[in-house]
Structures are given as structure tokens and as C-alpha cells.
Specification:
With 281 residues, the chain is mainly alpha-helical. The chain has 9 helices and 8 strands. Helices cover 49% and strands 11% of the residues. A two-stranded antiparallel sheet has the order 1-2. The protein has a two-stranded parallel sheet with strand order 3-4. A two-stranded antiparallel sheet has the order 5-6.
């Protein structure tokens, strides 16, 4: 089996006026100077891996933050601002969850124009690649992947003639990822019914009010499964009861010992007083 062709590039051009770009300056003004290495790291990731875009998922904020040495929150805010000022294309970010731009794509396809083959996904393009004879669209799948449990990958070979030379091109059709199920907040009745089914001590009204007040977030992330959160509350409530019960038991033991000690002291004191009376008489 042939080794897959490297898609990204080892170097990418960075304009000498990068920090003077109005979009970059707006991002830095809003997010702080740490936005500069974050943007450069994002560009490096794009050009290194896919070449003209990168997927923005749950793990990417951590990976970028870990490389740059900042918090995930700073990375997330920087990306939001970058999309807002059109440093990254807003439509691609909202519809496909990717980071890209016309400038990024122009630089990439220009850098790889001498390659024999470069694959691209037409859904993610913001520019025309008709002038690049080595560009092959790998997203040409008529199968609806949402209706298939297992994605199918088709392979075919195309022979392209260019003057005296001929190039064998291996086209791989890559399936798109299924859409993530959107979270819908539950009603108090739904929470009550689920708590009744599990026979737990979670207060449905308190649960609803808590998450309603923080925008239905778990930590800094949006909630994905409210039933899982109910189960977490259930375990926490049980543990608290255990801890409270153990603490009360310890208090009861100490109080009991103190009562026994005081009773013993009282008995000894009474005995001593009686002995003294007998001696005097």
C-alpha cells in the first residue's frame, strides 16, 4: 500500500507587516498580546496539516494553549475575535467548524503548484482552483453519510495527460463527519420524571434553576447530556450524605465519651467528700 501523500507544507510566508494588519491589531486589542503567538500557532497548524484549513473541535483549544503556554479560555476568545473581524471566514467556521480564509488558501495552493497532486475538499474552498492542474476534488460522494452507519471510502485511478508526460492520480473520496446532535435543555417535568425513574434525591427545581442561571454549562463548556449531569448530582448528593453521616457519628461518639467522663468525675468527687466527712466524725 502506498504511503499517503503529505498534504501540508514545511514553511509558510508571514508578512513583515503582520502586526500592522488592522484585523490582527483588533484581535490583540481585544484579547491581549498573547493573541499574537496564538494566531501564529493556528496558521502553522493549518499550513502544516491540511494546508488550507483546520478543524476546530473540542481538543484544539487545549492543544494550542499547551503549545503557546496560555489558558484555553484565552485561545477560545482569540479565535472568536478572529472570526468576528474576518481573520478567519465566519461562514466556514459556523457551517463546517473549520478555520480558513481566502488569503490562507491562496498562499497554500500557490506554494504547492509544482506538486504532481494536491487534494482538496470543494466544500471548504473560498477561491477558484481551476488554474491549478494538479488539484483534485476528493469530495465527490453521492452517498448520504448520515444514513449509513459505516462510511464508505472509494478509490479510483485517473490518468491525466499533460503534454508528453502522464500522471497517475489516486483519488480518495473522504466522507464528511455526521452532524453533532444539538443540545436541547429539559423541562422541569422531564427532570422530575427522570429523577423519579432513578429514585434519587436530586431536587428537579434546584437542578433546573442552577443550570438555567449559568446558561446550561458544565464548567466552561456547554452541556451535552443533562441526564449525565443529573447522575453526577445524584452521586455527589449520596457522597455528601455519607460524609455528613460519618461526621455526625464522630460527634456523637465524642459527646458520649464526654458524658461518661463527666459522670465518672462526679462519682469520684462525691466519694472523696464522703470519706472526708467520716474522718472528721
Amino acid at each position: 500500500m502506498a504511503r499517503p501523500i503529505a498534504q501540508g507544507i514545511d514553511y509558510f510566508p508571514l508578512d513583515v507587516g503582520f502586526l500592522r494588519d488592522i484585523k490582527v491589531r483588533k484581535i490583540i486589542r481585544a484579547c491581549g498580546i498573547s493573541a499574537t503567538p496564538i494566531l501564529i500557532d493556528l496558521l502553522g497548524t493549518i499550513f502544516r496539516d491540511e494546508g488550507y484549513y483546520m478543524r476546530w473541535g473540542e481538543d484544539e483549544p487545549f492543544l494550542i494553549a499547551d503549545e503557546v503556554g496560555v489558558s484555553e479560555g484565552v485561545v477560545i476568545e482569540t479565535v472568536k475575535k478572529a472570526v468576528q473581524v474576518d481573520f478567519f471566514d465566519a461562514n466556514m467556521f459556523e457551517n463546517h467548524g473549520i478555520l480558513t480564509s481566502r488569503g490562507i488558501q491562496k498562499r497554500f495552493f500557490k506554494a504547492v503548484e509544482r506538486r504532481k497532486l494536491i487534494c482538496y475538499d470543494a466544500r471548504f474552498l473560498l477561491i477558484s482552483v481551476n488554474d491549478y492542474k494538479n488539484a483534485v476534488n476528493v469530495y465527490n460522494n453521492s452517498i448520504n453519510v448520515d444514513n449509513n452507519e459505516q462510511s464508505k471510502v472509494k478509490e479510483s485511478k485517473v490518468k491525466e495527460s499533460k503534454g508528453k508526460d502522464s500522471i497517475d492520480i489516486e483519488v480518495v473520496e473522504t466522507p464528511s463527519k455526521p452532524k453533532r446532535k444539538r443540545f436541547v435543555k429539559p423541562t422541569i417535568d422531564e427532570i422530575q420524571q427522570y429523577c423519579s425513574e432513578r429514585n434519587n434525591n436530586v431536587d428537579p427545581q434546584r437542578f433546573y434553576d442552577y443550570y438555567e442561571s449559568n446558561g446550561w454549562k458544565v464548567g466552561k463548556n456547554s452541556m451535552k447530556d443533562w441526564k449525565a449531569s443529573v447522575r453526577t448530582w445524584e452521586r455527589s448528593n449520596y457522597n455528601n450524605q455519607q460524609k455528613q453521616g460519618g461526621k455526625q457519628e464522630a460527634i456523637d461518639v465524642v459527646n458520649r465519651l464526654m458524658e461518661e467522663y463527666e459522670q465518672e468525675e462526679y462519682t469520684q468527687s462525691a466519694s472523696t467528700d464522703t470519706a472526708g466527712v467520716h474522718q472528721r466524725f
